[in-house]
Amino acid sequence: MKESGLWYLPNSENKIPGKLFLEDNKSTITLQLFTTSYLSGNKFEFANTKREDNNVELILGDTSNSPLGDITLFACSFSKLAPIGGDLYQLHYSVQFVFNYVHILQRTHLKFNHIEVLYPNSDNFYNGWNSRNYEEENPRNEYVKISNTFRIDDELSIDIVDSKRHTFSMSKNYEVKHSNHLKFNYNKTVDIDRIYQDCVTLQKMMEFSSRRKLAFIIKSAKIDFENIKNHHQHTNLILQKSDDVEKNMGHTYIYSRLTLNQKPFENRRKLNQNWLLFSGWTESEDSLNNFMKNWFQNQNLQPIYDFYLDTIDWGKDGAISNVNFNNRYLNLIQGLEAYYDYLNPEYKYINETFIAERQKVYNAIESKELKQWVGNHLRFPKQANLSYKLKFLCDKYLDILISLRANKALIKSYPYKAKEYRHKLSHGKINKTFQGEDLNSLYGFSQALLCICILDSIGMEHTQIADRIDSNPDINRQIPR
What we know:
481 residues, 3 domains, six-stranded antiparallel beta barrel, Thrombin, subunit H
């Protein structure tokens, strides 16, 4: 997509001609200006090493003949300055976000309370057995309706919006297409950063359940009229329906460099619900809602979730290297160790208290020699080693591992073998990058164990965990037997 227009800073009269490029194949958004000066109006000074406009928060665009209408560019960074001729230059900016149909004058005005988001395979995740009864008496009726609402917390609820439409063509007599999208509803306006954080959090939950890398696209968002320049001119806004005028909310569509790539939607293999760890097909509405709530609430566990998610993305460029495989094994062990620490807050409290008290003692000493002695000899209290932590987790989830028919000899030896390989890899005590079949078994067991920990963290019962993993061929095969 390419849009031409005049571009300028908020509350500035210095308008510069240029073009906006949204390149799906490169996942980039670039603003190209033809100018003799910066957007601020200051001339280029090439003798000065300090460059203006390195980072520009907001740039407004007038593209009257464009389908995008008024445009606001957010989070722009200098990309390139190239001479054209004489005093004329091409000034390029890399753009993170594009909001169309609106001019927003301040960063603090980028607040929204309703957004519509697309996720691939979301219909299989959220629509369960009840979806079979969605059809009306007349099967040819088209509809757009909310099929379910999940309440995440006091501020956020997520609507599942299903739609059905019909197409007619010369080659196909009749075709019915079902789809759905998600609507994030906030009880107050929230910043764009919060919106993307919530979208990514939900994306990770769906990736965990499906063991597939997913994406999302924000279709539209509602913004308060008061935060839009010339908001009284409704021709510059797309309104979802007439009562939005009374609510003083207008629509904008959002393009982002982070979600510009639509290949996950265009070139995707339909993910069958049988490959999902949990979904609307395996859980009741209340149970799925609780899992989602817990996933969002577990913000301090998100780094542990990330360790696991990185091990399920093997890419499409062939086998990964031994070095990459070894590093992923180390990440799994780090995730398990971090989860043990999470389960034992007393350990964290003891260490934090010790650090604070030791510092008080250190500050009270005047003698440099004595301070040095205290620093060298007043050590941290004894803490659990890695093998103890791994054995703790194996014992905690032993009933699940036995139910899944995991190799009993490996369960017993795992804490010590896993520690041995972790120390070899992390301390460089290796003669070759390929560590043999033992590491493959330890890797598969570690991945399954961390998966069990994550399911436990969102409130799934042990018997449920065993059933879900046993019926999921993608994870079940990871368990050494």
